Amino acid sequence: MESLRTARDRFRAWFDRVALESPARLTLGGFALAILIFAGLLSLPAATADGERAPFMDALFVATSAVCVTGLSTVDMGTFWSPWGLAIVGVAVKVGGLGIMTLASLAGLAISRRIGLTQRLLAADESRASGLGDLGSLLRTVVVVSTTVELTIAAVLIPRFLTLDYGWHKSVGYSLFYGVSSFNNAGFSPDPVGLYPYSGDLWMLVPIGLGVLIGALGYPVYLNLLRERRPSKWTLHTKLTLVTIAVLSFLSAGLLALFEWSNPLTLGSASTAQTIGNVFFQSINQRSGGFASFDIGLAREQTWLLEDVLMFIGGGSGGTAGGIRVTTLAVLVLAAWAEARGRRDMEAFGKRVGTEVLRVAVAITLASAGVVLLGTAIFMWQTDIPLDRSLYEVVSAFATCGLSTGITGSIDDDAKMTLIVMMYVGRVGSLTLASALMLNRHRRVIRYPSERPIIG
């Protein structure tokens, strides 16, 4: 008993050291281990509907997509997997979503411990944190908020599935799956027909859309909103996240309506009310959710381009959404606005944004764009698929969104591996890079003289 307690204490000490000193290492190793475990479970005969072992590449692809909460799949989710297989996918999504937010909180705590006392106190005042190391509260918030939202969505959807004669077991199972999949921005559907038959069903679209939206906000926003009810007391991060997501949602809804309103293959054949509902549902899912109420493969190319941009942007930091994050976009816009007005500082909501934040935003954006371009080039070389569809698929994988033009199931194993790498890099890469950049702070005594090159 004493030896067991000693081993447990040693493991806890090792975990604390790795988590707080090197969150990037924990992120890379933790997600890779989870992917391999769930790939092994999905390779079992009991996981498939026909009782045969799934090809390991397909099991690995779906496991990566689930743990990285992406939503892309090389097989039909509703017909290929058995109920046990769908349950494994649902657990993988839940583990991946909790892991993302937990590791993000660990990274934030590691960063706060590396900065100086003055900056730490300022950060604590800004976030209204109850202490300098508030990890326990963060983790409780992550678990409570995620589970509450998922169960609420399931409770709303169960009566709807019962009215469709799905039966109690199937109604409860599908509702729980949709609850987990929507909050974690995974975009998986357990129904073979997906959400296409429910394109005009607000009872289905509203709770799923709200789940995606809440999941995309990120745990720092949850924590701040739960602790502070007055908008004037919200942190700058919360304000930038909420405002940017609202602007992007309405802008994308307007552009989607402009592009697809007259397209008879997507929204053109629906009633005005159904079209408006689909437009707003899709505007939420275009950045991170991955659900689709119409066939994306039949949409116009300008819609694909719009969604490429939105998926690349993604959702809020510390949440289940992917992409470069909306606050990264907000900082870049603030920098451009300050330069256009001839201001020295970037300012928003009565706060000044430091130049070090801008450097991190630029680095993340350039690195992400480089990865997407390289991945697209490799994917096109492997498949001979045109640029528009290849770029869409790669951006969707990297941004862990899950939308597809319908080509995922037809690609060979080499191209599947490319998308697997893109999903993994897209999920752990942004958090790892941001943590590394924020933790890598060196003060130099000697600085070179300043000189400004000509820009533009």
UniProtKB/TrEMBL annotation:
Pfam families, alphabetically?
A: TrkH (PF02386)
Major location (coarse)? membrane
Membrane-spanning intervals of the chain: 26-47, 87-111, 138-158, 202-226, 238-259, 309-337, 357-381, 419-439
How does the protein's chain sit in the membrane according to the entry?
A: Multi-pass membrane protein
Q: Which UniProt keywords apply?
A: Cell membrane, Ion transport, Membrane, Transmembrane, Transmembrane helix, Transport
**Where is the protein situated, by its record's location annotation?**
Cell membrane
User: Coiled-coil segments, which residues?
Assistant: none
InterPro entries attached here? Cat_transpt (IPR003445)
Know the name of this protein? Answer: Ktr system potassium uptake protein B
Protein's organism: Demequina sediminis
